[in-house]
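FAD-dependent oxidoreductase domain-containing protein 2
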Amino acid sequence: LGLALYANSLCVASGAAFLYHDYCVIGAGPSGLQAAYFLQQAGRDYVVFERSHAPGSFFALYPRHRKLISINKQYTGKSNSEFNLRHDWNSLLSHDRRLLFRHYSRDFFPDADVMVRYLEDFASLLKLRVQYNTAIIHVTLERDEQAWNGHYFVLTDQDRQNYKCSSLLVATGTWVPNVVNFPGSEYVEGYETVSINPEDFAGQTVLILGRGNSAFETAENILGVTNFIHMVSRSRVRLSWATHYVGDLRAINNGLLDTYQLKSLDGLLEGDLEDLAIVKDKKGKLHITLRFYLENRNTSTGIDSITLPQDELDNFATRAPYDRVIRCLGWKFDFSIYNRSLRMMPGKGNKKKYPQIKPSYESRGTRGLFVLGTASHSVDFRKSAGGFIHGFRYTTRAVHRLLENRHHGVPWPSTVYPVTQLTNSIIKRVNEASGLYQMFSVLADIILLRENATEFEYLEEYPVGVLAELEMQTGRKAPNGLFVIVMEYGRNFSGADKDVFYYNRAVGEAQHAWQSNFLHPVIYYYKRLPTEREMRLRPPDWSLPRPDAVHHIVEDFLTDWTAPNAHILPLRRFLENCLSTDLRSFFADSCFLFAFTRQKLPPFCRQGYVRMQGLVGSEGLRRHAVEAGLLEDYTLTDFLGNRAPDSHKGSQDQLLRDHVIPVRPLQHLVNAKDE
């Protein structure tokens, strides 16, 4: 009995050592707080672990020169809050209107300290459950068939406290500096520690390693005080206005391009950094050479015994010595805290700084582990905005909806409309939706057709990469076909070597909409849900497999797709062709006429007029519709003979006054039908 009681006490003590939550979120940056908001709104059991004493610790240090490159547009000329988020790249999603970033700063490019204050308010005002000063140092798995995913996640913090979770959301971002090791790399200063006081660089010659926004931001800060600045990287400069990728070089930081191309001493070079070597002379000057010159040589013997490139090539580009070399190579994901059992593997090629994840943002190695925020950018790297607040606020919401369906049986939110509202629903979304606009080619609106195409179900901002899994991931059925609405740039318009300002770059005619270059809506029609094989075999630059039909809404200079002839009419006709139906709206008297002349009424008449909900038009409105070509000239005299009423108040009033319909007009209608 004593042994049994002792064993039981050990089990109780062991159980008490683990603090359990359904959801654990690592990191209280923007994506972690965004995930916490959705979990809290849904009433879920969760906790957010943050190693610092406040949220958004990354922004407390970066960017070093404190100016964000995410735009904060105060005015758009519109009051629609969803539309305005298209041009607000800093706000997180919430129901609290106080938590819009425009209330915190009026600067177009805000200060990073304002972002820190914003994130603190977001966490405190919404009372999010964030556990500060808790650094998770180890994550492993504990197998259990009763767990949601067949295992629990066990997290250990710096105080050896253990936590157990059913689902793990990793929102730590990419914060480990990228470092390239080569001979002499010990002389290199890192972006994370280099001085930001321009006076410290006065009269100096500087070499910057890297060619991203952090490199150009550093150059911009010291451009006016240095002798000259050289910048070297293995790839050519990529301008965001050419690639349409917001992570590439932004205009706010590209002053060095001016001084380079206008021959004011500064310059850009291409080369593999791993092939470089740095040698320091007796005066403290840093000389650039190549690694192979140092092979089998003792660098400690002095620079005079080392062959430099200029010894063989007297016009070698970097022959002038430098006072300082600064590393600005960005950051990578921290894989060190994850046990091998989680199989958190880095991506391949230029995605190796991110963990491998599926298009659903779930780890490829471990079920139930989702990666959010900047660290999830491998899904759309160099394609869309998933690595930035204005993108991952929507992908985080998508992940939450996937989890709600998987673990709690809550289907993806949807709205059911009559088919007569199909055109209007699409036009409304492509003109307002921010998630579609920012996460172009990645998130899509899905329209699921009901039987006989009399109704449809509208799902917003679903990840297109898992379209084949739509029924499983959303809890919605798609047996009767579907439309997929995405935003796209022209296929050959974006690229580092593209001239995006060439003459006749824009398309204005609806018949040439498929050649549109700028961001525009594209509607894909599938008679059935694409299979996983079709998704896997789609062309590399296609976000979706080949559809049964596709329609491009022609690009618009104002991004306002409401023109009746250029935008709405071609879309409506495309939808009608796909559904073999008539999606026009009609006046009540037109529906009455169709009842005598057609075997099948248009949906608008079946769903409206037959239910006594038809639209009654005035004579002035009718004339306008006829003149615009929207209605045929069915006049009342064709129906009731040549008698014209003295005052026409609408077809319905006239028909109510004439209780008996003369035989001749009725026979006239029958003959018209036979013809």
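thats it. The longest strand covers residues 18-26. The two ends are 100 Å apart (CA to CA). bye
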